[in-house]
From TrEMBL:
Residues 196-206 have a biased composition (Low complexity). Residues 1-23 form the signal peptide. It comes from the Bacteria. Residues 175-206 are annotated as: Disordered. InterPro entries: Trigger_fact/SurA_dom_sf. It holds the Pfam family SurA_N_3. It comes from Streptomyces ehimensis. Keywords: Signal. This is SurA N-terminal domain-containing protein.
């Protein structure tokens, strides 16, 4: 699964192969959007809803205090992951790769067997900033990535993901940072006049 929360591959705690970097650029803010990926807008409200799902699960977890303390950049990390899902999905679609419901169910069963049950899976993914109801989306993206590698090979898959990201012209709202085309992630906000978005903050125009 994910080698790091913002890596372009899916897999909490090393369950799936690490995914290479995305390429993209973004500088033009869009009112009400946390990011724009091609024609797809990820709204601030959608992002905050995902973040709150994670926060709620963290607060309910036995190790909740530690999880909350270790996820200060949850909003940004979640946004990066949502962008990456869209790039992987687009690359898969362009190359005739998708995931069936049966395949996703089988993958879920494999991961549960590996980690020791559904509760263990939820706990492991939660430590990576992914709520229980978001796990299937993470696994699905990982399966698309794996299928691309099987069909194209690793090197061509890397190139395909980068070209797809570039074609989609990833545009991140400056309040969440700036898109780093080399690392496939968003750099934290550094300017003193721009504050990083806080989890569950009221929606603000970009």
């Amino acid at each position: 699964m994910i080698r790091r929360r913002t890596a372009l591959s899916v897999s909490a705690a090393g369950l799936l192969a690490a995914v290479p970097l995305l390429t993209g650029c973004g500088s033009t803010p869009h009112p009400g959007a946390a990011a724009v990926v091609g024609k797809d807008r990820i709204t601030v409200a959608q992002l905050q809803s995902q973040v709150e799902d994670v926060r709620e699960a963290q607060r309910s977890a036995p190790q909740g205090r530690q999880l909350l303390a270790s996820s200060a950049r949850l909003s940004q990390d979640t946004l990066v992951r949502l962008i990456q899902y869209r790039v992987i999905e687009a690359a898969g679609r362009d190359n005739g790769v998708d995931v069936t419901r049966r395949e996703l169910q089988e993958r879920r069963e494999e991961v549960e067997k590996l980690l020791g049950g559904s509760a263990a899976v939820d706990s492991r993914f939660l430590a990576a900033g992914i709520a229980p109801d978001q796990v299937d989306q993470e696994l699905s993206a990982g399966l698309v990535r794996a299928k691309l590698e099987k069909k194209l090979g690793q090197a061509r898959t890397v190139d395909t993901l980068m070209k797809t990201s570039e074609a989609l012209r990833v545009d991140v709202n400056p309040r969440y940072g700036t898109w780093d085309p080399k690392r496939g992630t968003a750099r934290p906000v550094q300017e003193p006049w721009l504050r990083p978005a806080a989890p569950a903050a009221p929606e603000q125009p970009a």
